[in-house]
Amino acid sequence: MHALSQTTERPPIVVVMGHVDHGKSTLLDFIRKSNVVAGEAGGITQHVAAYEVEHEREGQKKRITFIDTPGHAAFQTIRARGANVADIAILVVAADDGVKAQTLEALAAIRESDIPFVVAINKIDKPNADMSRTQASLLEQHVYLEKFGGDVPWAAISAKTGAGIPELLDLVLLVADLEEFKADPTANAQGYVIEAHRDQKRGIAATLIITNGTLESGMAVTAGHAVAPVRIMEDHKGKTLKSATFSTPITLVGFDELPEAGLEFHSFENKKLAEAARVQKTAPVESAAATEGRFVMPIIVRADAIGSLDAIAHEVKKLGDEFSGVKIVQSGIGNISEADVKNAIGSHETAMVIGFNVNVDNSARDHARQFSINVETFDIIYKLTERLEELLKTMAPKRTVEESIGKAKLLKVFSSRKEVHVVGGSVSEGRMLRGGDVRVFRRKQAIGVGKIINLQSHRQDVERIETGGEFGAEIDASFELQEHDIIECFKTTTV
């Protein structure tokens, strides 16, 4: 862009992390004076987004960029990605609740990213707030707070009333001063894709955060294989920009395909240079052995944003076991269309179509009804995964599972007539059951399966013999039994 490079102070990029209901979005809401939570399904932030604010410290106004990462456990990949993009993390912990499972996940992501962090102990306005207990729960996780023998800065806040938030922002800027974040405004801009979505009117748009350099109208951007000319560039409030520099979150419209969230982007003087430099696509090679002998339920997924697709893919991988699972055979951004339903019909195994925060086109609904294709939509991620788990249990073929009940040693074979053998034995572990199936072992080799058709103790018919008990039994088997054979009693269930 320019001949000479010169580094200058760069505003910090801050990620806010913590447990699902400990007040991260309320904190950001207070900071930027706009409401995100009200429109979110179930009160859970469903997307990563970035916002820029100004805060005055020691008479100087300074910029801070915030990344909001979804708090629900399903968004673990986004949360980790958010921490990797950021310079500083704020770990939000509720004073009335202390450290929870997702607090630990967030803490692990922060430590893995090796970035400094500040603790915000929130909800101090709650009647049951317990600062001492919360501080102790942090200490148990080796988070050593300042004033308590440690070096982790912290502030007591109420995201609801705003108490302590100026002090929290002071701490963020103090950490930023100590870290001395630098960038070169004369370089071509580079940074990260935070989010991407398909705008029905304007095309594919992505939220980018610039970590170095300057982006100007007329330039072009690459993110992986995706390319966009810099024509429509807006700040987080939707205001048109001609130029943007480091730590600024922007929306760039006009990508030729959806860039993946979390990818690094680079900028070039023009579109021709960008297209020449773009990363070439490579198709993933899928291992046939991975699905051999395993039932796989195919689904087509349409979602409102890349972040949602990431989260769904992350959760889908967890579903099932070594015998069955769910596979996304196709995914994309935008409403469910007739083409999606046709693709579901045309797939190797008829797929179902799942939508997240999207609508179903009328033609798609009609087509699905006509061809009996299952189309379902959701607005909360864990409801979607619960439903997939339920469907997988219904659709996966039943299989038989053997459970060992007990073992016995044959001490005597009294007689054999046709296929009925009269034996005496002793139970070494578990129990023998009348009517139970038995597997017979001779010198540790399985030689066949039979059934206990009668069981006696002290010449009385009984239903079972427990460990240590001696018994007489009639066993139906198509092979000869011998003294010292081991019989294992087992039951078979269908799952």
- Overall pLDDT: 86
Biggest beta-sheet profile: 7 strands, antiparallel
What percentage of the residues does DSSP assign to strands (E)? Answer: 35-45%
Distance linking N and C termini: 65 Å
Question: Strands of the largest sheet, in order across it?
Answer: 13-12-17-9-10-16-14
Q: Please tell me how large the radius of gyration is.
A: 32 Å
Spans of at least 5 consecutive residues with low confidence: 34-38, 71-75, 282-290
- Given helix and strand content, the structural type is alpha+beta
Number of helices: 11
Helix content: 10-25%
Q: Could you tell me the number of beta strands?
A: 29
The general outline is elongated
Overall description:
- By secondary structure, the chain is an alpha+beta fold.
- The chain has helices at residues 24-32, 76-85, 101-113, 131-140, 165-179, 271-277, 288-291, 306-316, 338-346, 362-370, 381-395; strands spanning 8-9, 13-18, 49-57, 60-68, 88-94, 117-122, 154-156, 182-183, 190-199, 203-212, 214-216, 220-223, 226-229, 232-234, 243-245, 249-255, 264-268, 295-303, 324-333, 352-356, 375-378, 400-417, 420-433, 437-442, 445-457, 460-461, 464-466, 470-476, 486-494.
- The strands form six sheets. A seven-stranded antiparallel beta sheet has the order 13-12-17-9-10-16-14, with helices on one face. It has a six-stranded mixed beta sheet with strand order 3-4-2-5-6-7, with helices on both faces. A six-stranded antiparallel β-barrel has the order 22-23-28-25-24-29.
- The chain starts with 7 loop residues before the first strand and ends with a strand.
- Mean pLDDT is 86; it is low at 34-38, 71-75 and 282-290.
